[in-house]
Amino acid sequence: MRGVAFIVAVTVVAEVGDFHRFDNPRQLMAYLGLTPSEHSTGASVRRGGITKAGSGLARRALIKGAWSYRMQARVSRKLHDRIEGLPKSVRDIAWKGQVRMCRRYRHLVLPGR
């Protein structure tokens, strides 16, 4: 993944520990404080910024890695060297994920979110 190099990966693994303790990705995101806060009263539901619970170090590393998706999807020379020995099916999945993340970022930014 673009933006997730050795330091980011080691930081997240060291801070989270055992990933098997989470049943689904939503639980992991809640643990890291990457879920939106919510203020609800009756039928009214208002969502706010991220909750910032859990490990600030892991959250900061992931957010800095996510900033690389602001740019257009591409494979840099450094990333090309990292994925060179991987099977084509793995590289195709990674490329599809990169395109999806870049498109998602643009979708969120366009309306001024």
From TrEMBL:
Residues in domain Transposase IS116/IS110/IS902 C-terminal?
1-72
InterPro entries on file = Transpos_IS110 (IPR047650), Transposase_20 (IPR003346)
Query: Pfam families in the record, alphabetically?
Result: Transposase_20
User: What is one GO biological process annotated to this record?
Assistant: DNA transposition
Q: Which domain of life is it from?
A: Bacteria
Q: Which GO terms describe its molecular function?
A: DNA binding; transposase activity
PANTHER family hit by this protein: PUTATIVE TRANSPOSASE FOR IS117-RELATED, TRANSPOSASE FOR INSERTION SEQUENCE ELEMENT IS1111A
Annotated protein name in UniProt: Transposase IS116/IS110/IS902 family protein
Lineage here is:
Bacteria, Pseudomonadati, Pseudomonadota, Alphaproteobacteria, Rhodobacterales
